[in-house]
Specification:
With 502 residues, this protein is an alpha/beta fold. It has helices at 6-14, 32-44, 91-99, 134-152, 155-170, 186-193, 196-200, 203-209, 214-229, 237-245, 260-267, 393-399, 405-409, 459-476, 496-501; strands at 22-28, 53-60, 71-74, 77-80, 104-105, 114-117, 122-125, 253-254, 271-275, 279-285, 288-293, 298-301, 303-306, 316-318, 328-338, 356-359, 369-377, 380-387, 418-428, 446-448. The chain is globular, with a radius of gyration of 25 Å. The chain binds flavin-adenine dinucleotide (FAD). Pfam families: NAD_binding_8, Prenylcys_lyase.
Length: 502
């Protein structure tokens, strides 16, 4: 019989591990998935009992918490660079915001002007008031609704009903523990809520069946999926419905930045946070996992959780894991302080430029959308531009060209004062029928929260997935007692996963 290597024994002894009654849970990623997982683990299990204690360690490769919830600073103001809006029915986001004493930033009046650009002309345009009067806001809202109705007809109502049907199913994820099982796979979770079918077909197929007109699908719906997911109506139906929900009324955000949610969740969950520490390998050694980091550190963990999409990270797994091959959709977010040239859009004056210019699915359009974030004065504004490819300086100079002949001759032809570029590995490249990675990657204690992200990517879906994974962990790990046994009801639904562990 082969003797265990002496070096390996020494290694096992010295790698960072606390006493044996402490169960170390290691989470990779400090975004909403990782931070809300820590929160739910603490919420659903005692911090310590006489026999056991769980310590939670979060690794984050960046120097800030939040992942795709992050702000950029331009002209001294902070703007959302990633996840910017939250739906009024996102119960966890709302609950976190309230319980963490954060303030909700009220949604804008809704009267912001939208224009649909096809590269040569505006196909459709709404109007916005040029005053701060709430009465005028309401009148413009009504007028814009009539404009939408005139162009797209009653198909708009069918679109709203489609979103409502999806939302009704999604709300099942907030049901009590008695009704809601612990789910072992994404498929089970979606099937239970009545959402799985939406992931098997494209949004376009779903909407045609729901009776939407081709014009509404190719214009307004396309605009929304491009703005929210950088993709066309060929994304899967559920992601599409979530995207459409993100264009409705009552949307909100957190005063001072949405990234405060993960930051405060981590702060309040008794977590050890290792910032700027990237995990490079995860190896199963007997009953635990050894995590190695770029800092040359090794950590021994009883439970390891991946809370980031695995598609673009460099983590080596031993033994290897197998998940469906996927890719991320990249969105290039470019922030510019300057002044858009109305001439680029065939307009005469800056005042005529709509607050949101969104585009339809036409090849070679260089940007997906341009929105005004802040107006400092009539000739000084901050804009956010989304595009599928990086925006070159030459194009930005054309978009922000100064309409002044003297300055043009003097070669000071761009109004750009500040430009910030972010290349996001933004969300999954959704493709129906969706194939999901498992929540449990190895049949032991290696979990993957972002397996759920291929259903839909949002702050709330991250929290919903984390809540289920927290219950799954507590139901499967013998040493972790739950505060309330009903939390772990319906073990049967975890099915075969439990047997692997016993
Ligand atoms: C431009 C953009 C706009 C969006 N708009 C919205 C919106 O308006 N509303 C909405 O609800 N959602 C929106 N989303 C989606 C939303 O941001 C994401 O679904 C959500 O934030 C994902 O959170 P997460 O925790 O799963 O992943 P992430 O936020 O990506 O967190 C993962 C973290 O893990 C870290 N990490 C990765 N690998 C390692 C490693 N090896 N070691 C250590 N750390 C590692 C990363 O640095 C990252 O911080 C948007 C996304 C983008 C990009």
């Amino acid at each position: 019989m082969a003797k265990p290597s002496f070096l390996l024994l020494i290694l096992l002894f010295f790698i960072n591990k606390s006493d044996s009654s402490t169960h170390q849970i290691c989470i990779i990623g400090s975004g909403i998935a990782g931070s809300s997982l820590a929160h739910f683990l603490r919420k659903y299990s005692p911090q310590s009992t006489t026999t056991s204690h769980q310590s939670i360690l979060i690794f984050e490769r960046n120097d800030v918490i939040g992942g795709r919830m992050r702000t950029v600073s331009i002209g001294g103001d902070a703007f959302e660079a990633g996840a910017s809006i939250i739906h009024p029915k996102n119960h966890y986001a709302l609950e976190f915001t309230k319980s963490l004493n954060l303030s909700v930033r009220a949604p804008s009046s809704g009267a912001n002007s939208l224009a649909i650009w096809d590269g040569t002309r505006f196909l459709f345009q709404t109007f916005s008031p040029k005053s701060d009067s709430p009465i005028l806001d309401k009148m413009y809202d009504l007028f814009n609704s009539l404009l939408l109705l005139r162009r797209y007809g009653f198909s708009l109502i069918r679109m709203e009903r489609f979103v409502e049907r999806m939302l009704k199913c999604f709300l099942k994820f907030y049901e009590g523990f008695e009704e809601r099982p612990v789910f072992g796979t994404v498929e089970e979770m979606l099937k239970w809520a009545g959402l799985y079918e939406y992931t098997a077909r494209t949004l376009e197929e779903e909407l045609v069946d729901a009776g939407l007109s081709p014009l509404l699908i190719s214009e307004l719906v396309t605009v929304i999926t491009r703005v929210n997911y950088g993709q066309s109506v060929s994304i899967s139906g559920l992601a599409g419905a979530v995207s459409l929900a993100g264009s409705g009324g009552g949307l909100w955000s957190v005063e001072g930045g949405n990234c405060q949610i993960p930051a405060r969740l981590i702060q309040s969950s008794d977590v050890t946070l290792n910032l700027q520490e990237e995990i490079t390998s995860i190896s199963r050694l007997g009953n635990s996992y050894q995590l190695n980091s770029t800092k040359g550190n090794s950590y021994s963990c009883d439970i390891a959780v991946i809370a980031t999409p695995l598609d673009e990270v460099n983590i080596t797994f031993s033994p290897p894991i197998s998940i469906p091959e996927r890719k991320l959709q990249h969105t290039h977010a470019t922030f510019v302080r300057g002044l858009l040239d109305p001439g680029y859009f065939g307009l005469n004056s800056v005042a005529d430029i709509p607050e949101l210019i969104a585009t339809v699915e036409i090849p070679d359009l260089p940007f997906t959308c341009i929105s005004i974030l802040k107006k400092y004065s009539d000739d000084d504004m901050t804009y956010k531009i989304f595009s599928r490819a990086p925006l070159q300086d030459a194009l930005l100079d054309r978009l922000f060209r100064l309409n002044d002949y003297v300055l043009y001759i003097a070669s000071i032809y761009s109004s750009r004062k500040e430009t910030i570029r972010i290349n996001w590995g933004a969300y999954p490249h959704f493709k129906a029928p969706e194939v999901f990675a498992p929540f449990l990657l190895d049949g032991f204690h290696l979990y993957y929260v972002n397996a759920f992200e291929n259903a839909a990517s949002a702050i709330e879906t991250g929290a919903v997935a984390a809540e289920n994974v927290a219950r799954l962990i507590l139901s499967r790990y013998p040493g972790l007692n739950s505060r309330d046994s009903s939390i772990l009801t319906s073990f049967a639904h975890v099915g075969d996963l439990l047997h692997l562990d016993l």
